[in-house]
């Protein structure tokens, strides 16, 4: 233990200091997810099933968007490590444009999906609830992407507290809006699931406006505004952000697709399965989002060391991050597992859902190791800008392994929803091992900077 602390102690402290504001911000997202599911579920179990379908479809877009915006992290991190502040600000401007274009592309794709909702085999009673909620979330995508650009910029310059406070404030606004619009309080009509969507849209707009105002007015960002507002447009930097962002977005999108496309199979099992799946996804975000907060800190620290060619500390940072994520997993899972029989009752009064949810906890526990492994080393690879190989690894893990295994367990072996969840550990652990092996091979070669343009 003493040797471990001597080797990694400084990295534990640095990652904890940098990562905890990100984790706290992610905790706000988790609380919002709980609040959404609680309020919608108690308003109507049918609306909870509709929310499950739509949220899973849009989670694919949002996770891809987040992954694409992560292309900014190693760029800004390297500029910040080299004290090239104006270029870091110019990177933000390029990222805002790139993220907006990607959001418009996502909106076009999701519009095509909207026009084909009836062909996806979902229960007929859900379609009238799905459609208006879907359209509101569709409009909000561009604001998600703009917020991501600002957040990755401030995270990359090690200012993780700004995004944390904006996230917490925006999520609080969203929860209040949910209460008012779902249940029809303060003179507003009772809108149910649609009210939850409108509240989400409003909070996302407000968060972008507040973030932009802070970056453009606060004194601590003055040295970055030279590049943000005055430097000439850089096509080279714009292309680099796209070269990094698309592979990361596709890798994270394929990971989420193993969950989001599974929702179509869950829909074949009926409304009760959809509602149970939504509750477990809400619980799973409790660990995933907090792991990803620490993973984001790993990417920032790795990119800082990568910018000055310090291979040893690149590897130590990644290893320290994995140690911390494993520790978080033990603590969080102990809490979650102890509540497994009461969780469903928090969200719905349905006895059928309450009977099904506890059976999903065993595969949920099993996949946490693989999830922590892939989160850590995916972020470490992003930090060294070695992102292209992750696309193929993710395709193998999530499309060749996870989805077919889920269909096999659920429908061939007739395990139902439990079978779909049992497949997730296979995909996540496969991805984690492949990312870990890639990171080890790349950081064994010196100088590390040769990998910068991969």
UniProtKB/TrEMBL annotation:
This is Multidrug-efflux transporter. Its main location: membrane. The keyword Lipid biosynthesis does not apply. It is found in: Cell membrane. GO terms for biological process: monoatomic ion transport. Pfam families: MatE. Keywords: Antiport, Cell membrane, Ion transport, Membrane, Transmembrane, Transmembrane helix, Transport. GO terms for molecular function: antiporter activity; xenobiotic transmembrane transporter activity. It is a multi-pass membrane protein. The chain crosses the membrane at residues 12-35, 57-80, 92-113, 133-150, 162-182, 194-216, 259-280, 286-303, 324-347, 353-370, 391-412, 418-437. GO terms for cellular component: plasma membrane. It comes from the Bacteria. The keyword Cell membrane applies.
């Amino acid at each position: 233990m003493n040797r471990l602390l001597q080797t990694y102690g400084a990295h534990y402290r640095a990652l904890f200091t940098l990562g905890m504001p990100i984790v706290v911000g992610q905790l706000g997202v988790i609380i919002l997810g709980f609040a959404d599911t609680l309020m919608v579920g108690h308003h109507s179990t049918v609306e909870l099933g509709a929310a499950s379908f739509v949220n899973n479809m849009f989670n694919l877009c949002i996770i891809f968007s987040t992954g694409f915006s992560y292309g900014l992290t190693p760029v800004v991190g390297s500029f910040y490590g080299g004290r090239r502040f104006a270029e870091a600000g110019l990177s933000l401007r390029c990222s805002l444009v790139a993220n907006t274009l990607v959001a418009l592309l996502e909106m076009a794709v999701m519009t095509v999906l909207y026009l084909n909702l009836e062909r996806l085999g979902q229960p007929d009673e859900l379609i009238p609830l799905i459609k208006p909620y879907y359209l509101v979330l569709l409009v909000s995508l561009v604001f998600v992407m703009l917020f991501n650009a600002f957040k990755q910029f401030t995270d990359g310059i090690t200012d993780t507290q700004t995004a944390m406070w904006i996230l917490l404030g925006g999520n609080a606004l969203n929860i209040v809006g949910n209460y008012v619009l779902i249940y029809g309080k303060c003179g507003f009509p009772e809108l149910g699931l649609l009210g939850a969507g409108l509240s989400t849209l409003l909070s996302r707009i407000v968060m972008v406006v507040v973030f932009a105002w802070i970056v453009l007015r606060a004194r601590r960002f003055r040295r970055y505004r030279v590049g943000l507002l005055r430097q000439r447009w850089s096509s080279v930097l714009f292309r680099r952000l796209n070269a990094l962002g698309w592979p990361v977005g596709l890798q994270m999108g394929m990971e989420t697709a193993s969950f989001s496309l599974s929702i179509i199979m869950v829909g074949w099992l009926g409304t009760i399965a959809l509602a149970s799946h939504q509750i477990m996804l809400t619980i799973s975000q409790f660990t995933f989002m907090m792991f990803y907060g620490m993973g984001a800190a790993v990417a920032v620290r790795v990119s800082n060391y990568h910018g000055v060619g310090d291979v040893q500390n690149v590897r130590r940072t990644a290893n320290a991050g994995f140690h911390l994520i494993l520790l978080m997993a033990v603590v969080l899972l102990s809490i979650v597992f102890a509540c497994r029989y009461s969780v469903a009752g928090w969200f719905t009064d349905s006895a059928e859902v309450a009977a099904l949810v506890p059976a999903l906890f065993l595969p949920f526990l099993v996949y946490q190791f693989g999830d922590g492994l892939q989160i850590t080393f995916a972020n470490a690879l992003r930090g060294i800008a070695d992102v292209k190989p992750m696309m193929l690894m993710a395709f193998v893990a999530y499309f060749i392994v996870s989805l077919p295994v889920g269909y096999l367990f659920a429908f061939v072996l007739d395990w139902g929803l439990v079978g779909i969840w049992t497949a997730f550990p296979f995909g996540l652990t496969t991805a984690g091992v492949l990312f870990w092996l890639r990171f080890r091979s790349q950081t064994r070669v010196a100088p590390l900077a040769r990998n910068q343009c991969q």
